[in-house]
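Thread: "does anyone have the structure for this chain?"

Original post by V.I.:
We have the sequence but no experimental structure in hand. Need at least a predicted one for the grant figures.
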Amino acid sequence: MGQEPRTLPPSPNWYCARCSDAVPGGLFGFAARTSVFLVRVGPGAGAIAGTPPFRVIGELVGHTERVSGFTFSHHPGQYNLCATSSDDGTVKIWDVETKAVVTEHALHQHTISALHWSPRVKDLIVSGDEKGVVFCYWLNRNDSQYLFIEPRTIFCLTCSLHHEDLVAIGYKDGIVVIIDISKKGEVIHRLRGHDDEIHSIAWCPVPGEDCLSISQEENSEPELPNGKVVAQTPVTKGCYLATGSKDQTIRIWSCSRGRGVMTLKLPFLKRRGGMDPTIKERLWLTLHWPKDQPTQLVSSCFGGELLLWDLTQSWRRKYTLFSASAEGQNHSRIVFNLCPLQTEDDKQLLLSTSMDRDVKCWDMATLECCWTLPSLGGFAYSLAFSPVDTGCLAIGVGDGMIRVWNTISIKNNYDVKNFWQGVKSKVTALCWHPTKEGCLAFGTDDGKVGLYDTYSNKPPQISSTYHKKTVYSLAWGPPIPSLSAGGEGDRPSLTLYSCGGEGLVLQHNPWKLNGEAFDINKLIRDTNSIKYKLPVHTEISWKADGKIMALGNEDGSIEIFQIPNLKLICTIQQHHKLVNTISWHHEHGSQPELSYLMASGSNNAVIYVHNLKAVIESNPESPVTITEPYRTLSGHTAKITSLAWSPHHDGRLVSASYDGTAQVWDALQEEPLCNFRGHRGRLLCVAWSPLDPDCIYSGADDFCVYKWLVSMQEHSRPPQGKKSIELEKKRLSQPKPKPKKKKKVTSRVSVKQELYEGNEEESIRESTGPVENGSVSDQEGEEEAREPELPCRVASIVSREPVICPPVSLGLEKPKVIVNNKVTLLKKEPPKDKPEALVMKKRKARSMLPLSTSLDHRSKEELHQDCLVLAAAKHFKELNEDVSADLEERFHLGLFTDRATLYRMMEVEGKGHLENGHPELYHQLMLWKGDLKGVLQTAVERGELTDNLVAMAPVAGYHVWLWAVEAFAKQLCFQEQYVKAASHLLSIHKVYEAVELLKSHHFYREAIAVAKARLRPEDPILKDLYLSWGAILEKDGHYAVAAKCYLGAASAYDAAKVLAKKGDAASLKTAAELASIAGEDELSASLALRCAQELLLARNWVGAQEALQLHGSLQGQRLVFCLLELLSKHQEERQLSEGESSPASYNTWSAGIAGPLTERVTAVWKSAFGLDTPEQYRAALQQLQTIKYPSATNNTPFKQLLLHICHDLTLAVLSQQVASWDKAVEALLRAVVRSYDSGNFTVMQEVHSAFLPEGCDHLRDKLGDHQSPATPAFKSLEAFFIYGRLYEFWWSLSRPCPESNVWVRAAHSRTTSGEQSQQSDDASSEETDPQAPQPEPRKPPELDMRLTEESKRMLNTCKELLSEKHASFQNSQRTVAEVQETLAEMIRRHQKSQFCKSTANGPDKNDPEQEAEQPLSSPQSLGKEEKNEPLSLPELTKRLTEANERIAKFPESVKTWPFPDVLECCLVLLHIGSQCPESMTQEMQQQAQELLQKYGGTKVYQRHCQTFCT
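Reply from O.Q.:
Generated one for you, tokens below.
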């Protein structure tokens, strides 16, 4: 496995005569979907020694529809030029070196079907379309020529190798013509012999007709002896031409004689492997005539074999099969294109593209396959590395096949196996068994779950339980006690869990897949006694130890369950949209506690990481709700589809997103590290290589899988702003709208008929072979290059204008004439219909007895005879045979004789009505007759019941009426008149059936109205209707109406949840009020708080307080928001706000109160919130103490940071009010440390000025006793206060004007950015680095005078910062951190060196890893950097142990409370001493130097120690 990027490209397009080509030197290109992929072949590919010499090097992007033709310029000096044609109507000329379009033309009006770059004329590109139009385009002079030779569909064309004006064209109907373009397309020869599509035309590489000793063909004309003819003109100079056709023959033609001289019939070969030979497969016959080998011809065959024909013996059908010895090397499906290629080392190769989605390279010297490049025919939905067979990557693809890629194969970079049996649908989910070799679970788009054994050729085992919708994810986990199972007895150690699009998670027993799978919702509901509706599940993930299961839901929540009975221990309410992916951190890192980290991504663009250690270890009795993330990763601009933790690092995560990029994060620091932008579509999956820390694989809806290296990416974060990939994708993938008028049905029958036949072939194949592009098309935009949905390229005519040829046309008329004819026809036709329509309107009502009436209008003789027959019938008592026969014939006389004859007349009239399509008249006749029941039976059988008939049914009796109404209801359902059918069912009191009918056809509103009106209020049907309709409305995004449905079903909890789905402030507030009314207090409080936080982002303080007022349990949060509002107002007054552009909406009580901030806060609490007594303060304090926020980092958003700080400050003020000064000190310290950790010095100073305006002395007085438990916290708080004063003083020395607050802030923002990026501890490199650009202080005399008293007083207090125990403790911490970093670096390099040894004899010269193979001298080598001595593992371990032992000896007070970096403070004091010598005592300077000498041994401080301590 080499250390270089790789591409698994889309499949080459099908049914194109020329959509791949190659040029000498080793460049090969093939059209795939809307672009062309370029492959470098031969020594220039830069492949690793021992692997096949080829590499995918790029893509030509620019067409908006399928590329139908691709051809290189074969002229030396311009091999870099190529041409493409596309269904978007353009021909583009490209430079492959720059991958840019040189020029293009859109001359064709119809679909382009053939393209060739002339091998004789350097700048001539010839193209033909499906209407028979040919365009010659000269690149250099930007000139073109229009030729219309035959009104037929062109299938292929090839320019002559020997004569610059000759072009051979093959048509759909089997005709081949040779034209001279210099004579306006004059036909030189019309070659007849084939009777089906021409797929390929190849000119003999040698001019003249002496190269083949061909005897005269049997059917040739006898007067031409030996087939020799004297050449008349240069144009007719002899040359052979070969054509391949769908009629299963190859014909060799003589250009001098203009007819065929040899016919080769394709042999039926016995298939070896692959598909069933009895299955009829469409043939594609492509040819290649090898250069300088005129006696040999290469052709494709029925099932993907390649044949080398020997043309020297025309009377014998002699051929050699490619790869005859090696089993399974041939293509398994038909071959579309053959391209010769000569490499830099003069090897003669042949490249082939096929329906089996492989590109194969053949050595023409041996006829053996050199290498295979696999490709993808659908979206890459899923990636999974085998945990057992290292480096084995399974890929789930939308073309109905699973690929298993051995990524560490030494001999083959693309060692890919295909698995298609039993799949037959898009593969959307994959998961390897954690311990069993070769056991791969897969899920499909149609809900199927199965198990493949990738080491055998057996078809997969398929679970008998299907999901109703797409399988979203699969996971192996421990078996849970299914309620249906009898006992613990015979159970596997791991079972398969699948999550489907309908929201269910099923447990499948891998030993009994034919048994019924278990829905885990049943166990969840029983174990946790849940009465409300369970959420729709969208993702499942098991923690690595198999004890904890996480379920992601459609509403954005994540639920954490504990085995064995799936007890719900925690719900995470963080995402507010559908959860797509959940990933647990691995267990084998240097910090085991990281295995409790769980990353999740949803339809929102934000990734959240939660630390579940505390929750899982505490094992709470009732479920805990988490609303604050441990870390937030923001940067993507569209939904997150996949997440994967790096198995090589701690806390490193890669994410895939719909914004078209993959992003690598340092999750612990919330820092984006690198961004991959190689895909052209939306990313669907991502996987980290288990072997190479620098290597990641990703798949997308651009039909590609990319292997890419983290170290080679130039971007560090996703592109910001609205990424236009969605619009671009739609633009690229959607075909142009076709004019409606072209869709006339005229003369299209034959084309359609062929289409149907082709599709039948496809469907037959589908049952036995891999699913093709056409058989399973990916509907959600995954258009399989569109063309293969139709069995042949000609089929795409259907979507365009049909071929209309007037019978008189001889091909000489211009197309315009045809168009005009069509237009005039269209104008003339409509008026013909109008008179008929008018006649129809004026026509009288139809006669009930038309046959009798017509017989009464015959000739006088006939009418007289009627009278005589009637008289005889009336007056003779016994009729003789003649009279009876006459009465039979003259049935209309039944009107005047007896009833039996009348009935016979009615029967004849009735049959006439039925034959003429007037059943209603027949029914009326039967009614006249009195046979109502018979009428009804006939109408039911024929589906011709009407309202009239049903209304008359009671005449035949009650039961007949019931039966008729039911039958009519069924008939109406067939006619899709469901509401009317339900009304008829109600008329016979079938209420339940009517309601069910309406419900099953989604007429929920009508069904509820009926059920409410006709059923008891407590009937369960009503509740079921509400819940079903609510679920559908919720899915469609109609949240308010869905909430009304849930309220109708008395499920207020679900109503509140669905209202909150929208996530805006108004919806959240309504949802909170609704939950409050329904008594769902916990949900109401949670939603009200979310609403307040949304309003806080918009700085709507009034609205936020109103939202918090909704619930009594949020009284404490109201105080926090109040303090935050006052602090923001205070900042605004002092012009220290962050410069928000949106105007703030403040409460009235925030203005008009003077005095220090603490007093203002307590005054507002008293006046606005009625907080007065110590009991009230204690209650609020107790309420807020239960809420814990995670520590801050320098990536924490500013508004979130302020909220968390104000929470701590609120606790401090409340503690002061109840005289709990130790708690007040601790809370105040937490607020200060939070701002310090985030690197926001301005906020820290703001806290100091607002809450410690006079310093810390009053707190010392309040604490009193030095033995107080809060004394260490107080010492830390005092140290941070002095730390802030120290920096302000130091900066004032470098300022011309001490009052310049703006300058102070700017200096610090520069400082803190250096501080966080340079060091892992809290030391600021800006101050500790003497090389940093610090302005030299200029000391005006008046400044020295003014600072003298103040500086001495302030600097005296700085002794508190020079704490030796804290310096020692911090030094030990730094030592531990540096040793851990060195160890991690050693482990990574060791893995890399081992890996290189195992995969190749030696790394490639260009391998980036070569640079890393140096003796280990880590940058953190703890004092040995100067000597470049490598550190040994025992020595590092010893240092780590010693440092940890030193840390353990420190008192808890030192370890618990943070303290400013002592060495940083020493350096600042020494800087001040160097700038202003008289301001510091000698003793303090000496103490600072001693501390630096003693503890400045780590890399961070060594250089600075040398500056001040030498």
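V.I.: this helps a lot. Residues 1364-1399 form the longest helix (36 residues).
O.Q.: and The radius of gyration is 43 Å.
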